[in-house]
Structure formats: structure tokens, C-alpha cells
Amino acid sequence: xxxxxxxxxxxRTVEKPRxxxxxxxxxxxxxxxSRVKTFFKGLCAALMLALPLSVPATAQDAAPGxxxxxxxxxxxxxxxxxxxPFVARNPAAQDLAEDISRVIAADLSNTxxxxxxxxxxxxxRVSSFxxxxxxxxxxxxxxxxxxxxxxLVEPDGRIVVQFRLFDVFxxxxxxxxxxxxxxxxxxxxxxxxxxxxxxxxxxxxxxxFDSRVVFVSETGPKDARQKRLAVMDYDGANVQYxxxxxxxxxxxxxxxxxxxxxxxxxxxxxxxxxxxxxxTLEKQTVGGVDQNMSFxxxxxxxxxxxxxxxxxxxxxxxxxxxxxxxxxxRLTTAPSIETAPSFSPxxxxxxxxxxxxxxxxxxxxxxxxGDGSRISYGEGRYGTPVWSPKGDYIAFTKQNAGRFHIGVMxxxxxxxxxxxxxxxxxxxxxxxxxxxxxxxxxxxxAQGAPALYSVDITGRNLQRxxxxxxxxxxxxxxxxx
Amino acid sequence: xxxxxxxxxxxxxxxxxxxxxxxxxxxAPVPPEDSIEIAAVSVISSAEFxxxxxxxxxxxxxxxVAPEAPATPDAPAPAPAEETPPPQSVARPETPAPSAPDAxxxxxxxxxxPQADVAADTPDAPAPPAxxxxxxxxxxxxxxxxxxxxxxxxxxxxxxxxxxxxxxxxEAPPTPEPAEEEPAEPSEAPAAPEETAPIIVTEADTPGRAxxxxxxxxRRPNRPTPVAAEExxxxxxxxxxxxxxxxxxxxxxxxxxxxxxxxxxxxxAALAEARGGGTPAPAAPAGPPLTQGERDGLRxxxxxxxxxxxxxxxxxxxxxxxxxxxxxxxxxxxxxxxLVGFEGGxxxxxxxxxxVGRRAIFRCGRDGFDLPPEKYEQWKEIEMSFDPSQMRLR
Lengths: 481, 394
Fold this sequence. Notes:
Chain B: This is Cell division and transport-associated protein TolA. The complex is a heterodimer. By secondary structure, chain A is α+β, with helices and mostly antiparallel strands. Chain A has helices at about 1-60, 95-110, 135-140, 185-205, and strands at about 65-70, 80, 85-90, 115, 145-155, 160-165, 170-175, 180, 210-220, 225-235, 240, 250-255, 260-265, 270-275, 285, 295-300, 305-310, 315-320, 330, 340-345, 350-355, 360-365, 375, 380-385, 395-400, 405-410, 415-420, 425-430, 435-440, 450-455, 460-465, 470-480. Chain A folds into 2 domains: about 80-205, TolB, N-terminal domain (Rossmann fold, 3-Layer(aba) Sandwich), CATH 3.40.50; about 210-480, Neuraminidase. Chain A is built from 4 helices and 32 strands. In chain A, helix 2 packs across helix 4 (about 185-205). The longest helix of chain A has about 60 residues, at about 1-60. Chain A is globular and about 75 Å long. The termini of chain A are far apart. The model of chain A is unreliable at about 1-30 and about 45-65 (pLDDT under 50). By secondary structure, chain B is mainly α. Among the domains of chain B are: about 45-165, no CATH class; about 290-390, Fusion Protein Consisting Of Minor Coat Protein, Glycine Rich Linker, Tola, And A His Tag, Chain: A, Domain 2. Chain B is about 35% helix and about 5% strand. In chain B, strands 3-2-4 form a 3-stranded antiparallel beta sheet. The N and C termini of chain B lie far apart (about 115 Å). Mean pLDDT of chain B is about 60; it is low at about 60-140, about 160-200, about 205-215 and about 225-285. Chains A and B meet through helix 1, strand 1 and strand 31 of A and strand 1, helix 9, helix 10, helix 11 and helix 12 of B.
């Protein structure tokens, strides 16, 4: 009883301060509110008083600096370019001048970044290489860039090509004029050089028109396909065959210096890594131990080493071969399949494909070997990674949901972007400037055949490369010297 | 002793109980049940009943006492001739229930409906029952509300509703148009198509994230240009003292962060003014600042020609700022264009981005930008920044 009384008393003593506290809080709130009101009243009054002072000052100081405008939205459309026929400086150069200007226009148009204005729309005729440019005539047909040039065939047969590039709307030349000298049979290369210069000058990207591509030319039905090594200009011209169709060849790769090609050949019945000299067509089998299969070779950036994968005792790992000394170093020791290695352009790292996680994914490891770290985490299976010559992206093949894709991602796996999607796209290779990717696309069905396609890394301008027959496994060589 | 006490307690308790019972009325006599009211009923014939219904006011519930003949022979009585209570037939005319008219002679006097008019006005309407059709229906077929015209009755009670119901059904057919709009917008999946053309547009192009040209609204129309260099240009829309008001509004605009610098200058000038210093005395009348619409007009005009497609990947990460002086006709002076700053890329990338920006300025400004001449002092110098960060993602 006593205890109950005490608790009741305690309850009262607890309750009382609570009620008192509430009223205190309320009164405190009201006080605070009134203070805030007073503050805002004061603030408003101050502002009202300050307004007449500041407004005339603003108006008086209306003599401003430059008007500042920020442009964030633009348009994405091909840049219009006019390529009038080059001026033939002597009669012998007449045909050559026409051909060279046509190749230049085709090179630029094939990039998708340019649109040539047809010649019949031209108002001005360039009759002299040194004549001043009638900018108004080119503005009238909305030509943003203008390429003029001249061709001279010298008595010794050499040809001299000069050209200038103009920004029409700015009414000034873009850079200095250039001159190339070469032999008559190399006129296409000279045209590519001119186009490269114009392309680089306008876009800021590196050149790539004057380059070659090695690929596997395929003839015959699907079940009895004959495969030969072939080399062509980037645009499909000047195809040359390096091997006969007696044995199968796979996965040719240009050396970074452009003098050698390495591929997997079946001359001995087993897949062997073979190096062929482009100039002499001399072959040399390298790497791999007898009775072991080696494949997916690729040169190091200095062209002195070859990294490849080999199956030894049922386990496929990566190896690197020094071409000068013939020594081989094993780079990986995992029980899974490691294949498709590719050096970074500085030679410090290697990206490769491994199924150690259960399905093929991409990994990057130091060039000296190691476990590597995984960089691909999207859905599907990743394979055939290739490091960009600029070092900023890695191109790859991706298989997901029954479709194949060519994609690019940053070297840490971020910013993955799929550029294509089809029944079968595979085997990307980079243009020398790291802006364009070429790959193999094979169509479905018994009549399906592979072909070479190229695409800009923005995913735009997908184009089929002109090859005389079916073609696969492209490898883009370096810019010719 | 104890017994006496117990008896006393018991007696007291019983007495109390009885007293409570008496007070609370437990033994009170049961009140008599409510007396049943008995009404006198007289049997009438159906004819008399119909006459009574016709004579009764429409909305008044029945007072079946006076079955005398109706004083208004033209009254619109539906008269279904049933023993059902009269309110039923009055209140629900849409279900006329033409059952058993019994061939009463009164019908010939009461219902002379002009049936021909009804059929002409509402040809598609279901034919109303013959008996309850009344003369108001002829007018009701034209308009939904009955017109109290030459009808004797004070209120047009029963007949209109069926025609009100049928009239909407006649007008209903013109309404199927909304239904036709529904089967639209087949949403196609943006899958990569198999290509057959030599130049193929991939899925990166198809969704149209990168429009071919800007879809911004066009620039503002030209205002009638007042005489330049006036103190208070009359174009100011709202207030009689435009320079101050517009300047203040301009100062409070949060949309253009790059343009904060003039505001900072304004603040310093205001401070100088507040300190009582002399008037800054601008060199030339500047006119009011450009409105947001005028700025947007200039921005859109340049955007239409800013083609970033040919920018290199590095130049796409470079923001360049180009300074230019403008001629009074809105044409940029080509000799004054220069690169005043860049960020995010190398010098080469900045040079390339500068050339693309310069090309945009000259292409779309060759005929002059649409800028208000009376505000020339505001835009005779322009610093234009080209920020391709948003375009990089397209």
C-alpha cells in the first residue's frame, strides 16, 4: 500500500513536470516563431530599403563585359566537302588527276563523317591551283570544306601531288598545303595520303586510309571451304594472296611494324603458329611443342615477341615467345582455358579471355603474367578482346541472347558500348587511329558466307568492305610508311 | 439477538426491494397497446380511379378521397390503367408498361398525340408505347428540355423522360471517333536489323537519340525597332520604368551560370553607389539586357550549325570559349574571332574544337543573328562557350 502510494506520488511528480515542460516548449516555440517573424519582417524591410539603392546601380552599370552564351546542343551530321577535280599540270597527269581526286572523295565519304557535294552542283571551277578561292560560290552550295589540288607527272615518271584544304565559311585555309611525291603505280597511296591529311586536319583523329588489312579469303561451299591468306588496301583495292589454298589458315595478325604476319596454319596437320614475311613471303613456324596445339597468336607492340595460347596436357594457357631468342615463358597457370591475348599499346599489360568464372570473360594482367583482374561484368559471354592502338578502349566480341555483338569498353571495363548486333559478328580489329573497328560478319544458313565490315566506334557508319570473295579474320595493319 | 438483527436486516432489505419496485414502476399496469386506426374504405371502379388519377396533381402523392372527374382534359396523364399506386406511374415514365388498357372511353379524350411529328424527328429512336405518348414529345424531340408552351398543366410531368432517353441515343453515333484513335503507336523493338545496303545504319542510329537538326522553337519575331539610344526603350513589356525592372529581373536569373560575372560587376557598382561615390557614368547607353528569349534565340541559332560529328574523341571532351565582336547588323566580325580559353583537352583538341565552333558561328551568322538592335551595346561583344559534354553521349 505504501509502495503504491509512493509510486502514485512518483507518478504525479513525473507527470507534473511533463505538462509543465509541454507548456514551456509551446511558449518557447511561440517565442521562437515570433522571433523568426520579427527577423523576416526586418529582412523584408531591409530588402525594401535596399532595393531602390541597388536597382539604379544595376541599371547604371549596364555597360557589361561580353555577352556570355554557352552552347551545349549541336547537330550530328556529315560535314559537307567539295572535292573538285585536281588540276592537271601537264597533259600526262590528266587521268591521274581525276582518279586521285575520286579516291580522296571516296575515302572521306566512306568514313561517314563527310558528305561529298556532287560535282554537278559546283558553281566555281578550279582551273588553277594557285588561283584565289571564290568562297561565296562554295558557300552558296553549303560546302563547309574544300579540297583543291594539282597533279604533275614528271619526265622520270614520278608524280607530284599538291593539295590545299579550306574552311569555306571561315574563308581561310585549314593548315598549310602539302605535297607528295611518288611513283605512278603508287598513285592510290598518294591519294590516301592526301585524304588522310584532310581527315586528320578536320577531325583531329589520326590517319588510317593509307593502311592495309590482312584477312582470310574463303572460297567454295561451307563444308569444303578453301582458305587463303590475303592482303588488301583498307578499301579493298590491291588484293594479294600470301598462301595457297592447300591448307587451312586461321587468325592472321599484322605485326605492329607491318613487315610480318603471324597466323595459325595447319600445314603439318596440327595448328602451328607461323610467321610470314610480307616482303619475301618467307615462312617460319614458331612456338609450340610438337603434339601440342598453339593458336591465337598476336604480336607485342615492338613486334619482337608473340603472345599466344597453347594446350599442354589438356590445359590451355598463355605463353609469350621471344622471336629473337626463341625462348618461351608461360604467363598463366590456371586450370581454366585462357586464350585470345592482346597487348596494350605500351606493352605493359595483356587482355585475354578466360572461362575461370564459368563462362568466357575478359581479364587484364601484367605482361609478365599473373592471374589478372576481370573487367567484363555484363550479361553474356565475352571473347576475342583487342586493345586499341590509342590505348583507350578494348574491342571485343559478345554473345548474348542468341546474338553476337561487336563492342568496345574502357580498359577498366566501364563504358561498355555495343556497336553491332547480328547472327554472327566476331573478331574485331582496330584501324591504326583507333577510331574504326573492322570485324567478320557471317550470315546464317547453308549459303551463309563471311564478309568484312567496319564500323565507327560511335556505332555509326557500318559498312561492308569490298573483297573479291568471302572473307574473314581481318587484322588491320599499321599506317604505311 | 442475532436473530432479531438478521430479521431486521432481512426486513429492511425486503422493504427496500419492494419500495424500489414500486417506485420504478415494476408493478405499474401495462399500458394499453396502440389503438389501431381504422380508415373507411370505399370500393371504386377502375374508370373512376383513372379519372381520379388524371385529376390529381402530378407530384402530389395520392389523396384517394376524391375520385371526381378531372377538370383538365388535356392534362398529360400517362394512365397506364392499373391498380398500382399513381406515383409509380408518374415517377417512372420510362417504363410505361402498356398493359391492359381495357379500352376505356376516357383515352380518346385524354391522349391525342401527334405521332407523326415524333416519328419524323427521331426516326431511329425506339417507338414509344402508343398509350403514354403525349403531345410534349413532339417538342422534346428537338431539344432535350421540354418547353412549357401551350400545355395546360403546370408542369410537364410524365411523358418527357422517355424522349430524353431516346434523344441521346440518337445523338450517340457521332461519338465513335475517340475509339478509332486507340489502335496506334505500335512500339517496335529497337533490335539491330540485318543489313543489306552497302551503308548500313546500326542500332546506334535508329533510336534517333541524335537528331539530325535541332528541334528548338524558332527565334522570337523581330520587334518594331524603336529609336536607338533612348533612356527607357518603350519595348519593355510590363512596367513604365523598364531599365531598372528588367535589370533586376535579369540579375535574378539563375539559368545562366556563366553569366554571373556581369552580376558581380553590378554588385560592386551597387556597393560603390551605396557608399555615396559618384555615378559610374557608363560610356554609352547600353539598353536593357537581353531577355532570356533573346539569349535562347542566339543559342539555338548557333546550335543549328554546331556539327560535332567530325570532332575527335578528345575534342569531344574539350570545352572551348570563343570571343567575337559583332557588327550592328548581327553579323560576327570575322577578324575578331579568337579562342580565349579551353578546358578538358590538349591544345590540338582545343584548336580543332575551336575550328568547329568558328564554323558554326560563321555558317549560321553570315546573314546576321536575330538580335535586338536597340540592345547592341549588350551584344556587341560575345563570348561563346561550346560544351560538347552532352553531345558525347549521343
